[in-house]
Design brief:
The chain is of the alpha/beta class and about 280 residues long. The protein has eleven helices and eight strands. The chain has an eight-stranded mixed beta sheet with strand order 1-2-4-3-5-6-7-8, with helices on both faces.
Length: about 280
């Protein structure tokens, strides 16, 4: 694992994994570790995590300029940013800011699962324990308050964007549905799943296609929940219920979805004509 030393703010940690393609995936971690680092996505990877409950809104402008400069030395042309939950917010926010810092010949696409889209002013819908911590930080730190004022409403950031992307969310989860459907950016497609859980990324994991591996993944989620209040707040009481809900959703794997997105980025299809993605059958 190669640490990416581009002088991001101290709260951010990033690593890089080389690949032979012209594709790059930038991932943001919702809990711990480096999201999708070990998945084969046919792309270079930059994986970013934060050590603070700042929802990735702390000084993103400076960070995104540094990442954009680094990207221009990689020899890639297609950039896909992925995140879930608070990291889903990051994929939208940082995706827009990175695209502003790159020449127009780069293709940038964002893939956001169940993002929070309104952090500031206070959003009573957001029931996550980490959001209460964030609001306390905002209320007691002038620097974070300025960041919240500038970046706390994703819909405003994306108001005039040409950025393309997808927001995938559970239609049966009132909070996630409301947060996703706030976004009105013309090139960001909203895809609602018949699914009730905040963890809308789970059915896209390769393990979800294999009953034994799915059981292992679910067990690990409940183990991790003991040390993460946000996970605890968003999963059913029993492992059996989570297994039932994830198994009932028929969606492609994240590997298949990324491959389809990169295919269309290479052909520069418009979002409404995303034929190769539509072939996956969940749009």
């Amino acid at each position: 694992m190669q640490k990416l030393d581009i002088e991001l703010a101290g709260c951010y940690t990033s690593v890089y994994k080389q690949h032979s393609s012209e594709n790059l995936v930038v991932t943001f971690t919702p809990t711990n570790g480096f999201f999708l680092y070990h998945n084969d996505l046919n792309a270079h990877k930059i994986c970013i995590s934060t050590t603070q409950p700042n929802y990735y809104i702390f000084n993103p402008g400076s960070a995104c300029k540094k990442i954009a400069n680094y990207i221009q030395g990689l020899g890639v042309k297609n950039i896909l940013l992925i995140g879930s939950s608070k990291a889903g917010l990051a994929s939208l926010l940082w995706g827009e800011l990175i695209s502003r810092s790159l020449p127009t010949e780069y293709n940038v696409f964002v893939l956001s699962f169940s993002p929070q889209t309104l952090l500031y002013p206070f959003n009573e819908r957001l029931y996550f324990p980490s959001y209460r911590v964030l609001m306390n930080l905002i209320n007691h730190n002038e620097g974070m308050k300025r960041c919240a004022e500038n970046y706390g409403d994703i819909n405003k950031i994306l108001a005039n964007t040409e950025l393309q992307g997808m927001i995938i969310y559970p239609k049966l989860n009132p909070c996630d549905k409301a947060e996703a459907e706030r976004v009105t950016a013309k090139n960001i497609k909203l895809i609602g799943l018949d699914y009730p859980l905040h963890g809308s990324f789970l059915p896209f994991m390769k393990q979800a296609k294999n009953p034994e591996k799915l059981q292992e993944m679910v067990k690990k989620i409940y183990t991790n929940a003991k040390n993460d209040e946000d996970i605890t707040a968003t999963i059913p009481e029993s492992e059996e219920k989570l297994l039932e809900l994830v198994s009932a959703i028929n969606v492609p794997t994240i590997e298949e979805l990324c491959q389809a997105i990169f295919f269309n980025m290479n052909s520069r299809d418009e979002l409404d004509n995303f034929h190769n993605v539509k072939k996956l059958g969940f749009i």
